[in-house]
Amino acid sequence: MPIVPPAKLAQLQRNSANIRNVCVLAHVDHGKTTLSDALLATNGIISNKLAGKIRYLDSREDEQERGITMESSGISLYYRLLQKQNNEDVASEFLVNLIDSPGHVDFASEVASAARLSDGALVLVDVVEGVCTQTVSVLHQAWVENVRPVLFLNKLDRLIVEWRLTPSEAYVHVQQLVEQVNAVLAG
């Protein structure tokens, strides 16, 4: 997708009903910044080949050097939704303000600020690492801020490449992981 012209983004900003603020929350190294890069690539901001390598939203020099996000950063993305209505395709356009937040416990205030500004959250869980301490913290933060969480199971390839699970073993593992996340939300 080509880069959306600034005039189009300005037009979308005038329609607050079609603006969504979404933060990306997770434990450290579960893939928040890589996912953010992939979403930026869908808007043509970075190339698909650089997604996951460039760490575009880690704009501070120390973040690039250390390879961790220390400060939340945001960017506006264009999203076009096609829906069927009366057998016709109807397009709706949205402006998604994406906030990539840190995963390390030392930057919890950044996570709290990102959640406070958001309508929804993509909560990433590395399927091999599972529910970690910061996973519990970010799920709690989303609950406190009344942010709608969407569970994003990340790094599914690790189940096959590293653990060499069969499809049915992987299914059982993922099912147990979802149950763990639900237990955190219920507790």
Order of strands side by side in the largest beta sheet? 2-3-1-4-5
Tally of strands: 5
Portion of residues within helices: 25-40%
Strand content: 25-35%
- The number of helical runs is 7
**Rg value:** 18 Å
Q: What is the distance, rounded to the nearest whole angstrom, between the alpha carbons of the first and last residues?
A: 42 Å
Largest sheet: 5 strands, mixed
Describe this structure in words.
With 187 residues, the protein is α/β, with parallel strands linked by helices. It is built from seven helices and five strands. It has helices spanning 6-13, 32-42, 61-66, 108-116, 133-144, 157-161, 167-186; strands spanning 19-26, 73-85, 88-100, 120-126, 148-154. A five-stranded mixed β-sheet has the order 2-3-1-4-5. β4 (120-126), α5 and β5 (148-154) form a beta-alpha-beta unit. The longest helix is centred in the last third of the chain and has 20 residues, at 167-186. The protein is globular, with a radius of gyration of 18 Å. It starts with 5 loop residues before the first helix and ends with a helix.
Task: Please summarize what this structure is.
By secondary structure, the protein is α/β, with parallel strands linked by helices.
List the keywords.
5 strands, five-stranded mixed β-sheet, about 40% helix, about 190 residues, alpha/beta
Task: Give a topology summary.
Blueprint: H1 6-13, E1 19-26, H2 32-42, H3 61-66, E2 73-85, E3 88-100, H4 108-116, E4 120-126, H5 133-144, E5 148-154, H6 157-161, H7 167-186
